[in-house]
Design goal:
Elements lengths: L28 H10 L7 H5 L5 H12 L7 E5 L10 H4 L4 E6 L2 H11 L7 E5 L12 E7 L8 H11 E12 L3 H9 L7 E4 L3 E4 L3 H11 L4 E5 L18 H9 L12 E7 L5
The protein binds S-adenosylmethionine.
Length: 282
C-alpha cells in the first residue's frame, strides 16, 4: 500500500493529485520564490529545456546503473525530483518499481504531472515536501536518488540523516551534484570570473559543490565507505559546451561512456556523485 510509506500523522493526496502540502520553506524561502516564478514559463518540449542544464544521455545511463541495484517491486525516493524527467521511461525499463518524487516547489510537480502523464499514481507518486524532514516511515525505500538538489540545501546533514532513516538496509543512496573541479577553477580565474564552491548564487539560491567534506559527512552517518563517481565530462553549459546533451545524442552517449573513466578524468567532470549503501540500522 502506497499510504504505508507515509508517516501515520500525515500526508494525504490533495485535489491536484499531489501528496502533501508545505508552505513554510525555512532557509530556502528565497529559492522557492525564484523557482515558482520560473515554473510559470511554458515550454513546448520540456526535454529541450532540460538538455540545457543536464546531459540527458549521461543521466539516462546513470539511471540504468542505479535501477540495477533495486530489487523486484522495489521503491525509490527521488529528492528534489522537480519535473521528474529521469523516470519518464520507468514503465519500459522497470515497470515493477514505484518512485516517489519529493519536491519543495509544488508548481514543479504540476509540470512533472504533464511530462509523466499516465505514469502518475501508477509508477510515480508526487510529494510536496522538504528533504530536511521527510514525511516517510523509517526503512521505506530500496534506493534514494538525487540530482543537483542537495547542493541547494544549506542543512545538508539533516538531509543525509533523513536519507539514512528512510533507506532500507541494503539500499543505495546516489547523490549527484556539481563537482568542485580544480581545472574549472583555474579557467574561471584566467577569465577573471569568480568560481563559487559554496555560497549564494546571484542572490537567488544557495549552492555547494561536492567536496570531500560531503563525503566525510556521509561516511560519519552511514559508517561505511562512500564511493565517488565523475560524470558529464564533455557537457559544460557554463562554457557554452552543450553539444550532446539532447536525448539519444551520439556525442552524449560517448560522454556517458567516459564516466567509466571518470576517476581519471575528474578535473574535467562537471558532476561528482557520492554513492553509499545503508549496511545496518545504527
Ligand atoms: C537544480 S533542480 C534539479 C531538479 C532535478 N533533480 C533534475 O535533475 O532535473 C533542484 C530541485 O531541487 C528542489 N529542492 C531544493 N531544495 C529542496 C528541498 N529542501 N526539498 C525538496 N526539494 C528541494 C528544487 O525545488 C528544484 O526543483
Amino acid at each position: 500500500m502506497i499510504e504505508d510509506i507515509f508517516q501515520a500523522n500525515g500526508i494525504t493526496i490533495k485535489k491536484d493529485g499531489i501528496y502533501g502540502d508545505i508552505s513554510d520553506y525555512g532557509e530556502q524561502e528565497l529559492e522557492v520564490r525564484v523557482r515558482k516564478k520560473f515554473a510559470k514559463n511554458h515550454f513546448d518540449y520540456y526535454l529541450d529545456h532540460i538538455s540545457k542544464h543536464h546531459s540527458i544521455p549521461v543521466m539516462d545511463k546513470e539511471i540504468i546503473r542505479f535501477l540495477e541495484t533495486i530489487p523486484k517491486n522495489g521503491t525509490i525516493l527521488d529528492i528534489g525530483g522537480c519535473w521528474g524527467w529521469h523516470w519518464r521511461k520507468i514503465n519500459e525499463i522497470r515497470p515493477d518499481i514505484k518512485v516517489f518524487i519529493i519536491e519543495l516547489v509544488r508548481s514543479n510537480l504540476h509540470i512533472a504531472k504533464n511530462i509523466l502523464g499516465k505514469l502518475i499514481d501508477k509508477n510515480i507518486f508526487l510529494v510536496n515536501g522538504n528533504a530536511i524532514n521527510l514525511p516517510f516511515n523509517n526503512n521505506s525505500f530500496d534506493g534514494v536518488w538525487s540530482v543537483q538538489a542537495t547542493q541547494h540545501i544549506p542543512s545538508l546533514e539533516l538531509v543525509y540523516r533523513e536519507v539514512f532513516r528512510v533507506l532500507k538496509v541494503g539500499g543505495l543512496f546516489a547523490d549527484y551534484n556539481l563537482n568542485n573541479s580544480y581545472l574549472s577553477k583555474l579557467i574561471y580565474i584566467l577569465f577573471g570570473k569568480k568560481y563559487l564552491v559554496e555560497g549564494i548564487v546571484n542572490n537567488q539560491f544557495f549552492l555547494r559543490r561536492t567536496t570531500d567534506k560531503n563525503r566525510s559527512l556521509l561516511n560519519t552517518i552511514f559508517k561505511t565507505k562512500v564511493r565517488s563517481r565523475y560524470t558529464e565530462i564533455l557537457f559544460h553549459p557554463e562554457y557554452k559546451l552543450s553539444v550532446g546533451s539532447r536525448e539519444k545524442s551520439l556525442f552524449g552517449m560517448v560522454d556517458s561512456y567516459l564516466a567509466n573513466f571518470g576517476y581519471l578524468l575528474q578535473p574535467f567532470a562537471r558532476q561528482r556523485s557520492l554513492h553509499v549503501l545503508k549496511l545496518k540500522v545504527i
